[in-house]
């Protein structure tokens, strides 16, 4: 979907309607949440308005007011509809893959991994449109607030699920494909002071276990599985499981979509 195209509202409208219905239910059942639910969800007409409000609320400072930041973020969403489309795919991914997520509403209100990912998407839009310092400012704030440090120039696909999200680091030249899942303390980093293309390329459907470090300009093949705590320094073939320090192939990934099943057993 290009920048000039409009969001396919009919494709995602059922998700938005479900979010609003969930919000109404929470407000009816837990009156203490009325202010939060109304201001965060029900006063808004669409997902982009909700995200602009939530991100501005979280990332604003004395130097960058919530109102100014809200306007900047909303303009990004209205200019590039892929930001909204990717947010919907990310919400669906979290709902499908996280057994602790029972409603589409939860990532919007409570999940720092989801919110940090959406902040990155706005930062990526800003830096691609010559707003470098504003982008770096938001990256800094996102790292401070969410504990997630994603460089604005990294390339990240849609349908991403970052579970727990604490201490995620994704470097400048990293590429993450579609439908990837990662747990806390994952690092997609470099190995030294070299400039240029120096970060990992993660294929579609990959599962990155907690504490996994993938370092250098290497490739992790699609639908592979990186075991928790592994340090990956060489290319990983498609549909394989790697484990250890340094990581070695220990078998097949065990399924066609490890990122969807979230099965972290080594088989």
Description:
The model has no long low-confidence stretch (mean pLDDT 94). The strands form three sheets. The chain has a six-stranded mixed β-sheet. It has a five-stranded parallel β-sheet with strand order 1-4-7-10-13. The protein has nine helices and 15 strands. With 267 residues, the chain is α/β, with parallel strands linked by helices. Helices cover 43% and strands 15% of the residues. A hairpin with a 4-residue loop joins strand 14 and strand 15.
Q: What brief labels describe this structure?
A:
267 residues, alpha/beta, serine acetyltransferase, domain 1, UDP N-Acetylglucosamine Acyltransferase, domain 1, 6-stranded mixed β-sheet, 5-stranded parallel β-sheet, 9 helices, 15 strands, 15% strand, globular
Question: Could you provide a short overview of the structure?
Answer:
By secondary structure, this protein is α/β, with parallel strands linked by helices. It contains nine helices and 15 strands. The N and C termini lie far apart (38 Å).
């Amino acid at each position: 979907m290009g920048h000039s195209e409009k969001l396919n509202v009919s494709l995602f409208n059922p998700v938005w309607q479900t979010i609003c219905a969930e919000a109404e239910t929470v407000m009816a059942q837990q009156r203490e949440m009325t202010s939060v639910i109304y201001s965060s969800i029900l006063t808004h007409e669409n997902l982009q308005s909700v995200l602009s409000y939530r991100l501005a609320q979280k990332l604003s400072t004395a130097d960058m007011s919530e109102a100014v930041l809200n306007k900047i973020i909303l303009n990004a969403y209205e200019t590039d509809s892929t930001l909204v489309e990717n947010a919907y795919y990310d919400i669906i991914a979290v709902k499908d893959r996280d057994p602790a997520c029972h409603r589409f509403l939860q990532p919007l209100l409570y999940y720092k991994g989801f919110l940090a990912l959406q902040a990155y998407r706005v930062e990526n839009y800003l830096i691609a449109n010559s707003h470098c310092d504003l982008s770096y400012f938001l990256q800094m704030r996102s790292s401070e607030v969410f504990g997630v440090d994603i460089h604005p120039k990294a390339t990240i696909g849609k349908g991403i699920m970052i579970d727990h999200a604490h201490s995620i680091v994704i470097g400048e030249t990293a590429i993450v494909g579609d439908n990837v899942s990662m747990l806390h303390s994952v690092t997609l980093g470099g190995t030294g002071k070299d400039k240029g293309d120096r970060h990992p390329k993660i294929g579609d459907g990959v599962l990155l276990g907690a504490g996994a470090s993938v370092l250098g300009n290497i490739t992790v093949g699609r639908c592979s599985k990186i075991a928790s705590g592994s340090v990956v320094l060489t290319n990983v073939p498609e549909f394989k499981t790697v484990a250890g320090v340094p990581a070695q192939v220990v078998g097949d990934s065990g399924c066609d979509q490890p990122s969807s099943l979230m099965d972290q057993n080594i088989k």
